[in-house]
Amino acid sequence: MGMDRLINIAACLQQCQVIAVTSHQQPDGDSLGSMLALYHQLAAMGKTVHMLLDDEVPAMYRFLPGWERIRRPLFTDRVDALVVLDAGEWHRIGIVAQCSYDTAINIDHHLGNTIAAKLSAIDTSAAATGELVYHLIQSLVPGDKSAEIAVCLYTAIVTDCGFFRYANTSPAVLRIAATLVEWGARPKEIAENVETRTAASLAVLGKVLDTLEIYADGKIAFISVDQSLAGKVESTEGFVNYPRAIEGVEIAALFKETEAGIIRVSLRSKNADVNAVARAFSGGGHHRAAGCTVKGSLADAKAKVLAQAAAQLKEYGV
């Protein structure tokens, strides 16, 4: 776990008065839950805390306590420490990286994290960055915490381990989840908030599923979201799980055209290393869940990524 590194980070934060907490663009439950949990703890300690994000908070996560305090960075922001959570690479935090800070702190669970920081705690065995933030918060001030912190950390963890369905679910993270419920997290309410979708989102999902294509003798399945469809839905989170669920599919992909010539790719697998696929396009993530951005048309992105995915299957022996 590298608890000594988290203890060193806690000691540094104890000495800081003005702290900024940030995470990656296109935020998810882990990034937002981790940010907010750390914010609540540091604020309770009397610190001045800025939550900076170079993006909007998706509607599905606006139940998290304190989300409305997250804002875009100002170049007048000057902080003692910048805490980067769940980001993997500097470019993923966008213009937040241009803020002025004395000390950079990097906390993450992604493979291939390249962020150069004075203090880092990277543990790829952790189910979520929220798991590391839980231990950091306990290093800062041991003992029971507020329901606000519990809700944020529980959301961070369950969204990254598929509500305890994914392979990264460990005995340790289940024990942490039990503690968070004792602190006041309510699993039923959190699940309902995270899984609620608008009628418009379901309508888009129906059209996206019509784009389903099968490749590599049924071992790869993928769906596509062109720019016109992408503009009709705030989030496509979870869409990629549908092709992944198809019998015989080993690798699933979602190709999303966020703007002309920019394709964001989400990759999931049952066993194969999709992090290796994403890294070929300067992306990354985890063994069974990763992503990247490819420049070009949808057709070009599909051809390049699918070829890499097929090569990875061959290397994996599938």
Give an overview in words.
The chain is α/β, with parallel strands linked by helices and 318 residues long. The protein is 38% helix and 21% strand. The chain has 11 helices and 11 strands. It has helices at 3-15, 29-44, 129-140, 147-160, 171-183, 187-195, 199-209, 227-230, 241-244, 274-279, 298-316, and strands at residues 18-23, 48-52, 78-85, 100-108, 119-122, 213-215, 220-225, 251-259, 262-269, 284-285, 289-295. A 6-stranded mixed beta sheet has the order 6-7-8-9-11-10. Strands 2-1-3-4-5 form a 5-stranded parallel beta sheet. A hairpin with a 4-residue loop joins strand 6 (213-215) and strand 7 (220-225). The chain is globular, with a radius of gyration of 19 Å. The model has no long low-confidence stretch (mean pLDDT 94).
In short:
The protein has eleven helices and eleven strands.
Provide the β-strand percentage band.
15-25%
Secondary-structure-based class equals alpha/beta
Helices, by number, come to 11
What is the CA-based Rg, rounded? 19 Å
Give the termini separation.
32 Å
How many strands in all?
A: 11
Shape by Cα distribution: globular
Helicity level: 25-40%
Looking at how many chains there are and whether they match, the oligomeric state comes to single chain
Average pLDDT for all residues: 94
Biggest sheet, strands in spatial order? 6-7-8-9-11-10
Give helix and strand order, one letter per element, not per position.
HEHEEEEHHHHHEEHHEEHEEH
Low-confidence stretches: none
Biggest sheet: strands, sense, closure? 6 strands, mixed
